[in-house]
Specification:
HxlR family transcriptional regulator; about 110 residues; Arc Repressor Mutant, subunit A; about 15% strand; DNA-binding; about 60% helix; single chain
């Protein structure tokens, strides 16, 4: 029997899911989308209680997937800003649909 990657490695749905898998990636994309450009510390504050290590890892993976652009300014203290790439912006309709779905289906307290 072939392994999972052999069977699904060329599947567009699997590719999409692997690019945005994880607890925080969709929320990160949503916050960056809403802000257009956001500094690391502001993003971390919005995503509290996310750990620094987790946020850093998720941002690096989103950058490697070409969905997030990282701009570093050589200043003291260091300044880093994040924005969606053109490829990342193609996920905006999905983000908006997910938000709308959640708004309609979230359980009432």
């Amino acid at each position: 029997m072939t392994d999972f990657e052999d069977k699904f490695g060329k599947c567009p749905l699997y590719y999409t899911m692997s690019a945005v898998e994880g607890k925080w990636k969709w929320v990160i994309l949503w916050e960056v989308y809403k802000a257009e450009v956001i500094r690391y510390n502001k993003l971390k504050a919005k995503l509290h209680p996310i750990a620094h290590k987790t946020l850093s890892k998720q941002l690096k993976e989103l950058e490697a997937s070409r969905l997030i652009h990282r701009e570093q300014y050589n200043e003291v203290p260091p300044k880093v800003e994040y924005s969606l790439t053109n490829e990342g912006k193609t996920l905006v309709p999905i983000l908006e649909l997910m938000y709308d779905w959640g708004e309609k289906h979230i359980p009432a307290e």
